[in-house]
Amino acid sequence: RFGGRDLTFIYTRGHANHHFVIFDSKTNAIFTGDSFGISYPSLRQGTSPFLFPSTTPTDFHAEEARLSIEKIVNTKADKAYLTHFDSWTDMKSGAEQMLYGIDRMEKVFNELVASNQSDSDLQALGEKGIGSFFEEEFLKRKIPSSILELVKPDIQINAQGLVFAANRAKKKGN
pTM, whole model, 2 decimals? Predict the structure, then answer.
């Protein structure tokens, strides 16, 4: 209880092992950090806004990320306050986008785990897979392709997170 409101802290592993979200009962909103994705203002152009999962820093775990989305939706919050950027009010659409995005990131992750390439080649493979996901979503949503340059650092850092997680998974498998 804080300032006339109940705050509920919910552990949401998946994006990062240390992650949690905070549900505010007074506003019926949830502060999600990166657990409910990233959506820059420029990704809200076109026919529908685009929300994508974060696979950084190094702890991406697809199954746990899906459970985190379920936990967020189960709060029945009216909106999510994203770290990057603003609020997201269409929780159903957001959850669907996140689950689809997590599936796509898991596909890239599995390709990295199966590959015997060097880290720099794995990075390129990860960037290619994530980049394809972004390109498809931009095309589907009619977001200008010029915006891809804006999200290039996200593609790179998300690929780095997947490469790190894939290398760790390979070591555990040996």
Answer: 0.93
